[in-house]
Amino acid sequence: MAKKAKTTTTNNNNDKDKDPPPSSSTPKLKPATAINTRHILCAKHSKKEDALAKLRQGAKFDDVAREFSEDKARQGGSLGWKTRGSLDAEYEKVAYGLEVSGVGGPKWGEVKTGFGYHVIMVEGRR
């Protein structure tokens, strides 16, 4: 009988420009049927990287969203409460894996969809 390989994920702090995948640093999240989410949507990768640089410097998520996001949700990137299945599947996969955080100290995830490059944060789960 073969043993199963044990896999572990480590956070290598030597690469400061990369954010760890949400699953590597987040505890097991309770299942949710809806999330309150914000995002920054950029058509170009370079613009998304500029937005991330601001976040890494400590800027508030909603301020960065107002400055960089190219979508119609200009209220600091707020999409409000969304039920599972109402958003793009790739967006949801990242968003439902994120911990709840606030605009002053956001925990974010990134994904590319047919709409562009998203930087996502979650403000609430239920």
Task: Characterise this structure.
With 126 residues, this protein is of the alpha+beta class. Helices cover 25% and strands 25% of the residues. It has four helices and four strands. It has helices at 22-25, 45-56, 61-68, 89-95; strands at 34-42, 78-83, 108-113, 116-125. A four-stranded antiparallel sheet has the order 2-1-4-3. A hairpin with a 2-residue loop joins β3 (108-113) and β4 (116-125). α2 packs antiparallel against α3 (61-68). It is globular and about 35 Å long. The model is unreliable at 1-26 (pLDDT under 50).
Explain briefly what this protein structure is.
With 126 residues, this protein is an alpha+beta fold. 25% of the residues lie in helices and 25% in strands. Helix 2 runs antiparallel to helix 3 (61-68).
Name the helix and strand elements from N-terminus to C-terminus, one letter apiece: HEHHEHEE
Q: If you average the pLDDT, what whole number results?
A: 82
Q: Find the count of extended strands (DSSP E, 2+ residues).
A: 4
Radius of gyration from CA coordinates: 15 Å
